[in-house]
Amino acid sequence: MFLRCPRSKLSVWAALCILVLCWLYIYPVYRLPSDKEIVNEVLRQGQVWKKNQTGIHLFRKLLKECCDPRKMFAVTKENSPIGKVLWYDGELYHSRTVNNDTYPLFVQETPLQVPLKRCAVVGNGGVLKRSGCGRDIDRANFVLRCNLPPLSKEYTKDVGTRTHLVTANPSIIEKRFQNLLWSRKAFVDSMKVYGPSYVYMPAFSMKPGTEPSLRAYHTLADSRSNQTVLFANPDFLRSVGRFWKGRGVHAKRLSTGLFLASLALGLCDEVALYGFWPFSVDLQERPISHHYYDNVLPFNGFHAMPEEFLQLWHLHKTGTLRMHIGSVVLNLECALLQRAQHMQPGSLCLIGPQDCAVDAAGAGMHMIDRAETPTSDEAEVAPDDWNPYSARS
């Protein structure tokens, strides 16, 4: 009896140590800056944006090595034949074997003709309100949207009208459409706004999401919709999660926006992001809503939105993608000018060498001509050579 006690205590302490290490691995101890600190840092470090073709190729190579988006982003008959076991990426030890019932639901092969030219990934951030970015978004060759966002007339000036791929989380099917158990017409009608697009669903991420996703597939098929349902490949989602975790994004799950940005970086020659601003204030430090259509906050701790933003902002800084924040394209000198002179921001979503415009009320703003040649501080940088936390105390 006396000999077992120390061993028992040792086992308890060992178990506690393992739990603590696991907790620190999942939720590392560091302090993220406040919203205001990030805004000031973005303004402080902002310089001329220049496309970095080398960085684009290097980052696409990194994504291909880890995740191969072009072949693996969707479950297809080619990569998931009958008998293949699909392991859920959001749940341990849960899987689904492809059988004669599920196999016919998959597309034959990746349906996209890659590489796509210019892609716009549209987040749902409140910074899109009164941005006037809709026309610029609609100029893209391929538009990706998150979580069945509203595209009614009151929003189209800011977010555009075109959609080529839209994600639909099973939780939306459950909450907004009662799991399609009663009336399916409301779901079919609500999907018409997205036109002949691909509906991208994580059917094999978590077990409770499988049946709602399959019901959504059958509902659209039965209504003879012109939309194609693509099921997200859990192997791809898992690999993308590991990829970003290794770069400092620690969360229970990546946001849909970061998944889509990763997909676009693997499929497209040029990537532009809109509405990726997860902070409570804009560049002029004015309060903004969480989404452009509501102010419902996500569950605490489920996503790591500031960490994701820092990674994407770095890719913007290195010219790998272009991030549009509100009415300007990270037009930081404009934002500083607006703040200094208490001006309202311009109403246009601008691109090109001249970043300041006359605002909607007619207030004059200086035109800032941008040089095409980067400064020595802006030489082409490989996107994997930067750690957003390295300089943080």
From TrEMBL:
Residues 372-393 are annotated as: Disordered. Keywords: Glycoprotein, Glycosyltransferase, Golgi apparatus, Membrane, Signal-anchor, Transferase, Transmembrane, Transmembrane helix. One of its GO terms (cellular component) is Golgi membrane. It holds the Pfam family Glyco_transf_29. The keyword Glycoprotein applies. It is found in: Golgi apparatus membrane. GO terms for molecular function: alpha-N-acetylneuraminate alpha-2,8-sialyltransferase activity. GO terms for biological process: N-glycan processing; oligosaccharide metabolic process. It is a single-pass type II membrane protein. InterPro entries: Glyco_trans_29, Glycosyltr_29_Sialyltrsf, GT29-like_sf. The chain crosses the membrane at residues 12-30. Belongs to the glycosyltransferase 29 family. This is Alpha-N-acetylneuraminide alpha-2,8-sialyltransferase. It comes from Aldrovandia affinis.
